[in-house]
Amino acid sequence: MSRPLPSVAFLGAGSMGGAILRGLVADGPAVEGGVFATNRTAEKAAALAGLPGVTSIALADEPDGNARAASEARIVLVGVKPAMVPALLEEIAPVLRDDAIVVSLAAGVTLDTFQRILGDGVSVLRSMPNTPSLVGKGVTGLARGAAATNDDAALVRELFAAVGTVIEVPEERIDALSAISGSGPAYVFLLIEELTRAAVALGFDESDAGRMVEGTFIGAAALLDASDEEPSELRRQVTSPKGTTERAVAVLQEAELAAVFQRAADAAIARAKELAAGA
């Protein structure tokens, strides 16, 4: 059984922060000291107010709510938009607990930005979750700052484990991880879109085409999850020699998908570097 987590604050509990919060409350380890969540509007705050153990704060009603939440929590997750991060860090820096662990959910904001504003002695980690965290099937990358201890990192890993798999990497690998697992769901959804279009072109109506393709992707992913085999072996098991699948796969391989995916990942990494530079 997981050890209880210390108090947690979600500063900006939007789609991603809210998903992690819900996963933590529903399936994660117990939280000693409570969970705090801030949102700009009373409407968004109300959506979290009924969750067990959660103190939901509307900044419209309590303008210093971020500072109050940060002062109460051992683990402080920063989930506001990247452009808003520096101002938020300046607001909470004076009230952070001595043992606070600050975790970034903001894409493109470096550990250096956090350390420069909060101070070199503050424990900081940078996270990169993806959208399947909404259904407890996420992949989260974690990079720790110089002041983060092994125990700090372990606590944060336990938090994110409530919504999926956690991979710890050096910060210089975060952009690459984002290009694969962060952007990856979009690549899968694009493949589903295109295969659905192919099904419609073969005469299926959109409803049947959608159910056929989505069911196939969901089933293939479930089979991979349940199997000890590598994806390449599972593909070979579907691909009978001189059969229809072999002919179709040959067409896909002629399209040099490996090179296409490499260019896509490189483009995502290049854009992440632009965002980090403020472009």
Automatic annotation (TrEMBL):
GO molecular function terms noted in the UniProt entry: pyrroline-5-carboxylate reductase activity
PANTHER family assigned to the protein according to its UniProt record, in alphabetical order: PYRROLINE-5-CARBOXYLATE REDUCTASE, PYRROLINE-5-CARBOXYLATE REDUCTASE 3
Keywords for the protein's UniProt record, in alphabetical order: Amino-acid biosynthesis, Cytoplasm, NADP, Oxidoreductase, Proline biosynthesis
Reactions listed under catalytic activity: L-proline + NAD(+) = (S)-1-pyrroline-5-carboxylate + NADH + 2 H(+); L-proline + NADP(+) = (S)-1-pyrroline-5-carboxylate + NADPH + 2 H(+)
Annotated EC: 1.5.1.2
GO cellular component terms given for this protein: cytoplasm
Main location: cytoplasm
Name by which UniProt lists this protein: Pyrroline-5-carboxylate reductase
Enzyme's top EC category: oxidoreductase
